Amino acid sequence: MYHPTFKQLKYLLAVSNNLHFGKAAKECFVSQSTLSSGIQELEKLLNIRLIERTKRNVFLTPLGKQIANNSEKIIMEMNDLLDYAKSSQEVLSGETKLGVIPTIAPYVLPHVMPKLKSKYPQLDLKLIEDQTANILEMLFNGNLDLVIIAKPYKTDNLMTLNLKKDHFYVALPNDNPLAKKNKKSLNSTDINRSKIFLLDEGHCLRDHALAACDSKTKANVDAFKATSLLTLVQMVANGTGITLLPELVINSRLIRDSNIKIMDYENKKNFREICICWRKSSPRIVEFQLLADFFKKYL
User: Fold this and answer.
1) Band of the pLDDT at 86, cuts 50, 70, 90?
2) How far is CA 283 from CA 81, 126, 127, in A?
3) pLDDT in tens, 1-58
4) 196 and 122: one domain?
5) 26 and 60 fall within a common domain
6) Do residues 61 and 49 make contact, with C-beta atoms less than 8 angstroms apart?
7) By residue range, what is the domain housing residue 199?
8) 216: part of which helix (H) or strand (E)?
9) Number of domains in the chain
10) How far apart are CA 251 and CA 216, in angstroms?
11) What is the pTM of this model?
12) Is the same domain home to 219 and 188?
């Protein structure tokens, strides 16, 4: 008798979690056609329908939901087995899957990855960029080995190491009256009459920036919600408002190539904490601490 493969069960669980073939394929680091074929093979093997797929929606059948739930337990146990096997091999070698949030990835990975590859040439690091809630879910499900996120954020049942305090700055147009103030650092009172742009809901940077504002400043947050930091910077450069940006972004080419002014905010009192997390059950603590030390060195 043939049994379902580990990959087939992973594909089913990913579809169950995302209800979207494209997102599920991204989570599994495969093409959408590969994932679809795997699901079809699983359905053929079990001789049952697991998924209903229309032009607009994806649903799991009742049996599909039950098998997906059972698959999650099997996958977690299998990932633990693989982790134990990897922990006995050469340090930082083979495949490791890392998730990073969009407000960190483009400002850290381009200059860190070449150095990491040089230091650990046998490490096959698979990267996925997504919002915090999504990569944490993938971490808990065993589809990622570790993640780099920003706190404050709920990280119960995870091993967490802080990498950097990422202080907030005010970004404003060069012709904004605040830019001409003879002050070393702006505060909430200075900016609470300005129109403020922030990222869309779901980006933890939005919550972190709001936490750095007083009630009057929050009242001036514009209804427009940007989907990327690039959009925020362009809105500011066009003179339509101001925003709060973290230090990682301030030191990037995105800002150097823009026509905006950067000013200290509340004497660097407000910041987000960049951290790296992994499951407490993982036996690869030595490897992940090495990775944490490496990222910390270059942040």
Assistant:
1) low
2) 10, 19, 21
3) 578 888 999 899 989 988 889 888 988 888 999 999 999 999 999 999 999 887 778 8
4) no
5) yes
6) yes
7) 164-272
8) helix 215-219
9) 3
10) 29
11) 0.75
12) yes
